[in-house]
Task: structure prediction
Amino acid sequence: MKILKTLTLRGPNYWSIEHCNLIVIRLDLADLEDRPSNKIPDFYEGLVEALPSLGDHYCSADRAETFLERVRAGTYLGHVVEHVALELQTLAGMEVSFGRTQATAESGVYQVVFEYCNEQAGRYAARAAVRLCNSLIDTGRYPDSELAQDLSDLQDLAAEASLGPSTETLVKEAENRGIPWMPLRARAMIQFGQGIYQAVAQPHRCSSRPQTACAG
Result:
């Protein structure tokens, strides 16, 4: 099982209008296409041992069946990667919950979609989720040291991209008012709004007060 391509979405998209920050990976299951989770020896047990908090995940809004029940009964591996990527981020302190997995026209290839708070952490979570699942397939377990390293790396990535206190206040107020926002790579700026109504803010390097400019 391997990732063929990774995309980052930063606005309303095909998958969701409400959830704008999404990672989309094109995942090749290869010979695992015909081997759901219940056909892989020790996969369920190893997954529960590595990430017992997955017991809090559900697969639909009606909450009729938990994710782990689906794994035990048999589900495709793309679905598992989706939930693992979400849980790794959550355990690292980034609350995310939205995900989707869909087959493509190409046999054995799936689109796996999941929410992120920090782009680099989200892309890392995709790789870590595939690595964890491959380890479970091969050995039935994922070493505690590897999981600890994954969570530490995710926390470091989130900390490196964290907003200053004033910018964080602006972001929260924008969310309360339903104003879309996104980070811009240029000069570590934040864009609020879209089109002619957009504005950008850049945290000042010497204080927590951001400099704001309106785009004309």
Summary: The chain has two domains: 2-160, 165-214. The longest helix spans residues 119-139. Residues 165-214 form one domain.
